[in-house]
Amino acid sequence: MIRAVIVDDEILALQHLEKLLLKTDQVEIIGMYTNAIDLLKVMKTLNFDVVFLDIEMPKLNGIEFAELIRDWNSAIKIVFVSAYRDYAIEAFELQSIDYLLKPITFDRLHKTVNRIVDQLQTSEKTVLLNETYTLKIICFNEFTVYHHNVPVKWKTAKVKELFAYLFTHLGDHIHRDTLIDNLWPEVEFERAKIQMHTTMSYLRKMLTSMGFSNAITFSNSGYTLSLNRFQCDAHQFERLIGDQHLITKDTFNVFEEIVDQYSGGYLETTGYNWAIPIASEIRQKFLQLLQRLVDFFNENGNLTKTEKYLQLLVLHNPYSEHVIQQLMRHYVTVGNRGEAVRVYHDMKNLLITDFGIPPDEATTKLYESIITR
Questions:
Q1: Is-annotated flag, keyword Cell division (predicted)?
Q2: Which of 275, 295, 322 is the last residue of a domain?
Q3: CB proximity list for 178: less than 8 A, separation 6 or greater
Q4: Segments forming the whole domain that contains residue 72
Q5: Residue 201: inside a domain, yes or no?
Q6: For residue range 316-351, what is the model confidence (pLDDT) as tens digits?
Q7: Which of helix, strand or coil describes residue 24?
Q8: How far is 283 from 316, CA to CA, in rounded Å?
Q9: pLDDT tens across 189-206, in order?
Q10: Which of 105, 144, 150, 231 has the highest count of CB atoms within 10 angstroms of its CB?
Q11: For residues 44-76, b (16+ Cβ closer than 10 Å) or e, as one string?
Q12: For the CA atoms of the chain, what is the radius of gyration?
């Protein structure tokens, strides 16, 4: 049962929404308020999952109050209610779960309630899974492994790299010679084979001490790593990328969460040469996702988010003149030609410094069209 609070300064609207919510048989009304100030005074004493917020209210409007709720408890779901569409962009920027237009119909509200149920169930499953995880593996930027939230101490650097390699190819059969070629490329084969066996022995003992006694199996001259009860930023990134295909007003916040998880390249600071192709593949998926977010927010008129993800694209892909051109055009659109000019010169200096070449003709023509307007 969803525990809900309703805030609307119109008594009839408040009662109408209450009636519809109770009709769904999925909602328990914890409290009803005719202004946000009254709820603000007591909300920390209440146990609720979602707040239905009218936007246009005296003293403290719904948008302002939603920001206070987000600061207090980001797990609270927010559904905005309004007779106008004008606030939709601001509402979605606050990652509200929905935006209901008055007069509210039962069918439309029922869809909202089902969406809330789905999100709450997902959150509960996530909490349950997190409680059962024994390994937390960070692959973006620095490679770090936590066992019961305590950083793993590696016997040697090679033990850490061996685990990173096997984990990168989790579930795959890796031939012994492939391991040697990737982890001991400069060592004579017979000596490398001894070092590989020693390192593998250390890794197996470490995993056994953490409760993974049969994690590494050997067959047909190769090794396979099998793990359960773990969470990994890179795995979650790949799963969410695979699960979510279309960016919509209902799903864009999921994609933004994916972006937030990308704190750096795959095993970026490790110096593992064998990880470079994998890192490149994941980076391309990340850049494609950023471009999709740019296109989505641009099409929906959210210039703030468009700029945010264009700037991220430039940060992660600074040599892309296509991205630079998009950012320059965006600044022209919002009336900030000075920033458009600065972006051009920054890239021009970068290209000349790093490659000794100027921007291409299309970028230069765009710049000239901006300064001559």
A1: no
A2: 275
A3: 222
A4: 2-131
A5: yes
A6: 999 999 999 999 999 999 999 999 999 999 999 999
A7: coil
A8: 9
A9: 999 999 999 999 999 999
A10: 231
A11: eeeebbbbbbbbbbeeebbbebbeebeeeeeeb
A12: 26
